[in-house]
Amino acid sequence: MKALKTFLKSIAIILMFFAIVIYLYNYLGYNDYKYEGKDAPIPTGLHPIVKKKTEHLINEAEAQDISIVITESFRTFERQEELYAQGRSEEGSIVTYAKGGESYHNYGLAIDFAIVKENEDLTWDINYDGNGNDKSDWHEVAEIAKDLGFEWGGDWSNFKDYPHLQMTFGLSIQELKLGFRPKVETEVKQ
Ligand SMILES: [Zn+2]
């Protein structure tokens, strides 16, 4: 009898433990953000939310008299490897520190932009002030992007990647490599 009581007590404690874990898991939003199923396939294009936010970015920049173009968006693992080789095993200067599968571009979660000058030339000059409001257009675009929920490569402390914007949805590269994906319907703040 005593043994049965102890046994039932143990079961109750174990069940309570799982209930708490499941509650915390949902409470922390892990479920919402991190699952579209593990071992999801590698995406083949830009994530729909990133795509929509990119359109907002282009329009909102235009409203500030800043014309931008998206020079890079989704990138295959193969193309990432080619870029990584540049300045290492291949000629040219180093353009990335990410190998294939290690960039948010490889999961359709990053874009790169450039500014279009009045004469239609592209510029990567972060001090360029085409709309003449005494503010760098590049920083103005970065501010709009951040309001839309992007992370800006210009804010990174080690390797500054000024044209780069990404949306991680709380997922690390390690998690993306493991097959975690943001939910398509996950909505970010408008
Ligand atoms: Zn980039």
Task: Outline the structure in words.
The chain has 190 residues and is α+β, with helices and mostly antiparallel strands. The chain folds into 2 domains: 2-34; 48-178, Muramoyl-pentapeptide Carboxypeptidase, domain 2 (2-Layer Sandwich). Helix content is 38%, strand content 11%. The protein contains 6 helices and 5 strands. The longest helix is centred in the N-terminal third of the chain and has 26 residues, at 2-27. The mean pLDDT is 89. Bound molecules: zinc ion. Zinc ion binds next to strand 2. Keywords: Membrane, Transmembrane, Transmembrane helix. This is M15 family peptidase. GO terms for molecular function: peptidase activity. The chain crosses the membrane at residues 6-28.
Largest sheet: 5 strands, antiparallel
N→C terminal distance: 61 Å
Instruction: Identify the bound ligands.
Output: zinc ion
CATH architecture title of the largest domain: 2-Layer Sandwich
Question: Which band does the percent of strand residues land in?
Answer: 5-15%
Number of strands: 5
* Portion in helices: 25-40%
Summarize the structure.
It is built from six helices and five strands; from the N terminus they run αααβαββαββα.
